[in-house]
Amino acid sequence: MIRVGILGYGNLGRGIEAAITQNPDMELRGVFTRRDPASVTIRTAGVPVLHADRLPEMTEEIDVLVLCGGSATDLPQQTPDYAKYFHVVDSFDTHARIPEHFAKVDAAAKEGKKTAVISVGWDPGMFSLNRLYANAILPEGKDYTFWGKGVSQGHSDAIRRIEGVKNAKQYTIPVESALESVRNGENPTLTTRQKHTRECFVVPQEGADLARIESEIKNMPNYFSDYDTTVHFITEEELERDHSGIPHGGFVLRSGATGMNREHKHLIEYRLKLDSNPEFTAAVITAYVRAAYRMGQEGMTGCKTVFDIPPAYLCRQSGEELRKNLL
Amino acid sequence: MIRVGILGYGNLGRGIEAAITQNPDMELRGVFTRRDPASVTIRTAGVPVLHADRLPEMTEEIDVLVLCGGSATDLPQQTPDYAKYFHVVDSFDTHARIPEHFAKVDAAAKEGKKTAVISVGWDPGMFSLNRLYANAILPEGKDYTFWGKGVSQGHSDAIRRIEGVKNAKQYTIPVESALESVRNGENPTLTTRQKHTRECFVVPQEGADLARIESEIKNMPNYFSDYDTTVHFITEEELERDHSGIPHGGFVLRSGATGMNREHKHLIEYRLKLDSNPEFTAAVITAYVRAAYRMGQEGMTGCKTVFDIPPAYLCRQSGEELRKNLL
Prior knowledge:
Two copies of one chain form a homodimer.
Chain A: E1 2-7, H1 11-20, E2 26-33, E3 49-51, E4 64-67, H2 74-82, E5 87-90, H3 98-112, E6 115-117, H4 126-137, E7 141-147, E8 150-151, H5 153-160, E9 165-174, H6 176-183, H7 192-195, E10 196-204, H8 210-218, E11 228-233, H9 236-242, E12 248-258, E13 264-274, H10 277-297, E14 302-304, H11 319-325
Parallel strand pairs in A: 1-2, 1-4, 2-3, 4-5, 5-6, 6-14, 10-11
Antiparallel strand pairs in A: 7-12, 8-9, 9-10, 12-13
Helix pairs in contact in A: 1-10, 2-3
């Protein structure tokens, strides 16, 4: 059994807890929090909730610690800190800071002779893997990534900061005609506006100026002004009823050519359609918990990404079973 | 530079030759054939065509040998034979015999301290990888594979064996409504007939009984009787003009659920749309030539499949570049 710990019990931590119930070779041994542990109720019977400060004394109890904090301030600190004590997996997704994060985590994991896997999830994660495979296969070609249909937390938050807005949810939606053009091998050059539209469901405060809110949203730089944006005003009840989920997904495509004269076109497409963004991210992370554990057992220590991990390490089955059933 | 040899100069061997021109860290050092080398003209200037018998004396000239023979009789012999002398990659695709092939190649490669990668291409190959990743992420779910639209060589050959048929080409086509049902998370149980249709373009001999030919095709056991089949009679010129390509492709999907009560559905879809089946297969193999070479350099000898190979080994770029550009 792989003994797993979770640090941070938000949406992602809850997703890890659920994913462990689908992996019979893993058991949850503890949920760790920086809040008062008595204030956190988890759903797995018999598993303790402990303060994060207790972690350094748990090295005999836990094989792999999953770090479920945010990329802005939590993970840059936590992943290097805990990679000295445990095999760890995180979902660090601040792209520009990955080299720096990798270097720190690598040093810590090597010091502790542990295996650390960073930036796991679907983007970065499965989308990255698909970009890599497709680029390796078709060295001459063009990459496209579309996101959605899905909820963007950042854009929803930006709307909620507008005066007169009580609540809001924003969906990023890929433009179907752009997708089709890529699929048809037309290798289009697409502007921001041509790739995605944005749809906003906004609950206004009583008496708020709806025209002003709509205009502020549509003209917000970076977030909305480069997109075709639709704004719907709805009630809090409608928001709760129709928009309480956290769906997401997207498409990674590579269009390329082969042949002595590049006369044959090919399209590689990877698509995700997810009812729950955090639960799917957690499902990916949980598969990499197994990989971190195994690589650790084999002494492959230091920092790894999805690019470095043999796919078979993600699976419970033996090499023999995998070749028989999935090859 | 990775020095590559090709054994067998059919469609696949020609595809490898073309793919090498897209990979600047590789050079073609020889094409080997069991035919009279003087009868084989290749398209790369300055590269010798030699008899296959010369291979054992070429161990200092070639790093990786790509075996481009058939799975029925060539590869079961050739891959173990040559894995003693070179790092090798093959596209062995007789599913039921993979365990046996793996064992023989593994023994030979270990004896020669070489790295052998078997069953590379898109199915087995990229489709297998996608099945594995999707199963690891969503342990509870259902797999679907659809092939096409594409030319089935086996089915085309079967039609050509019918009396009165001069030439023929058969396309396997996925049923769009079945695909949509899977994408909608309906988890359908699909019969053979519900998954694919078959479309045949047949050039009859002069005066042949068309009704009999059509009936023989549609009622042919295993090949056609379980499918909805359409038969078009056309001229040799039309066949040449409209059906001379070797397109193929398909879809690998996994539909699964997460959450404490499996309340959230997810769909993972991987799609290939290929103008040239052999050239795309060759492009995949060529990426794995690099992996075989690198693993060989690092002493990771024996038989491997796509499941065993860290994705980064397929790429020319360093780990640092990959993390920066593709993660």
